[in-house]
Amino acid sequence: MVSVGTMVWLTSELMFFAGLFAMFFTLRSTQGEMWAVYSQELDILLAGIITVILVASSFTAQFGVFAAERHQPRRTGGMLSVKSWGMVEWYILSFILGAIFIAGQSYEFAVLVSHGVSIQANAFGSAFYITTGFHGLHVIGGLFAFLYVIARAYFSVKFSAREAHAAVVVSYYWHFVDVVWIALFGIVYILPLLV
Question: Molecular function terms in GO for this entry (predicted)?
Fold first, then answer.
């Protein structure tokens, strides 16, 4: 039941981001010159690096799911023996990668604001910060979800199907957040280079 509820909720989140994309495209189509000027302020290299990091975190989260499905909450070997990692180690790594993504995004926001591109400056700033900012908030929510699942694994007497299922549901959310970012990266950073 939790999986179905999560899928329904993620569908509503998809509609939310579709609305944000519509706003972005509408403002871009009516403010073309402004978009051309301010798009040059974006740090495509940094955005590309944090995109790779976020996508990598989706893979590490999936490895955590595989471990959870094997009912292996923690590593069975040495810390450097990645093959022996359990769900906790993979989810800690996913958390770290997600935190690096947020740090990179925060750094880019700070640089853009120092260059005069703020949320209240113009339509570009509003569209950029609203779309990427809401995504960032979703990533932060995912980081808290990772911490919840990790804590649940540590404090449970026996790692059961309930704990494994919680890990799987969190992975659904994390994969969703990653796919939304890939779309955002393409629309916000790559599309201006092509058009």
Answer: cytochrome-c oxidase activity
pLDDT by residue (tens digit) across 24-76?
A: 889 888 887 888 888 888 999 999 999 999 999 999 999 999 999 999 888 88
Query: Over the range 7-31, which residues count as b (16 or more CB within 10 Å of their CB) and which as e?
Result: eeebeebeeebeebbeebeebbeeb
Separation of alpha carbons 126 and 177, rounded Å: 21
Residue type, 78: G
The per-residue DSSP string of 58-78 comes to: HHHHHHHHHHHHTT--S-SS-
Share of the chain above pLDDT 90, in %: 57
CA dist 55 and 172 (Å) reads 14
Provide the terminal-to-terminal Cα distance of the chain, rounded to the nearest Å: 45
pTM: 0.91
Q: Which helix (H) or strand (E) holds 82?
A: none
Cα gap 125→31, rounded to integer Å? 12
Domains defined for the chain, CATH in brackets: 2-194 (1.20.120.80)
